[in-house]
Amino acid sequence: MTTTLPPSATIDHDLPCIHCGYNLRTLAHNARCPECGAAVADSLDGQLGQSPLRRVRIGTMLLAASILMTFIYFLLLTNLRFFDRPSVDQSLLTLGAVLVAIEHALWCVGTFLASPLLPGRPGNHWRYIARVGAIVGSMGIMVVWIALAQYTPTAAGVAVYATPVPFFCRVLVAVSLGTHLHRIATLQHLPRIARLFRIAAWYFGITISALTLLWLVAMLLELLRWHPPQEYLFWPLHILIGAIGLALPLIICLLVAFATTSKRAFAHPN
After folding, report:
1. Are 29 and 6 in contact (CB under 8 A)?
2. What does residue 199 show for φ and ψ, rounded to 5 degrees?
3. What span, in angstroms and rounded, lies between the C-alpha atoms of 141 and 232?
4. Among residues 254, 156, 154, 161, which one has the least CA distance to residue 200?
5. What percent of the residues of the chain are helix, what percent strand, and what percent coil, each to the nearest 5?
6. What torsion do the CA atoms of 64, 125, 175, 194 make, to the nearest 10 degrees?
7. Angle between helices 52-79 and 164-187 (to 10 degrees)
8. What is the DSSP letter of 17?
9. How far apart are CA 1 and CA 7, in angstroms?
């Protein structure tokens, strides 16, 4: 419902900005939020349930759920070697495909919800990079799994050479979305969470980049028909996968902490 008060009137009660959570008390109705630059009228006219911050909280919870799916998938791949029966292996691989599909759906939707436009603030290009990366990465993983389901040499080759695409998109989303969430947490005066988001963004960006580069090197060696000793690629690959896998529970905790802390920040003036 649109307010009918004159523009020069001031707000005489605690009112959080729906874009960043800043307390708009004492500001005029035609003013702008001093934190994010959004019009005060947006917070007067908008419903709290439709606020960008609420969508960010939902998006971060979806991202936490998608990373949990990734962690479960890591555990499945780790335990495949303990089974000798082909039927068990096939069942676990099928379950892994289902988990990957669900995980990418949650990852894509969560990325869109957790990357709102910040009015009046520079650096909104991070949200566009994150969203494009999520779309391209989801399309890439679909191509990989569809090719794997064909059971033909050509399809297998497509799957192998298309695999770095979603990995590269993960790098884009990790760095860009982490940086965007760092900016949102900074606007809400959550310095510790903001700092952790920046650390997590670059940690995952570097580790996944190294994993993607190692994958490309392995494919290049395969094309050249040169097979170096297995340990040259085996140990770096498993060290990187382990570094990513061990960090997944930590990033889940960070996303959940941000979602709950951000929700409480709405109820208190800055």
Report:
1. yes
2. -60, -45
3. 27
4. 254
5. 70, 0, 25
6. -70
7. 140
8. -
9. 16
139: Cα separation from own chain's centroid: 16
Which is nearest to 66 in space by CA: 103, 25, 114? 103
Task: Give the Cα separation of 158 and 150 in Å (integer).
Answer: 11
Task: Judge if pTM exceeds 0.90.
Answer: no
Tokens of 118: 């910040």
Alpha-carbon gap, residue 242 to 253, rounded angstroms:
18
- Strand spans (E) along the chain: none
129-151 residues labelled b (16+ CB within 10 A) or e (exposed): bbbebbebbbbbbebbbebbeee
| Matching residue, tokens 């760092």 | 182
Q: How far apart are CA 9 and CA 26, in angstroms?
A: 9
pLDDT tens digits, residue range 79-103? 655 555 555 556 666 776 778 888 8
At 97, give phi and psi (nearest 5°).
Answer: -65, -40
Q: Six-digit token pair at 253? A: 């905790």
Tens of pLDDT, residues 165-220: 888 888 889 999 999 999 888 887 888 999 999 999 999 889 988 888 887 787 77
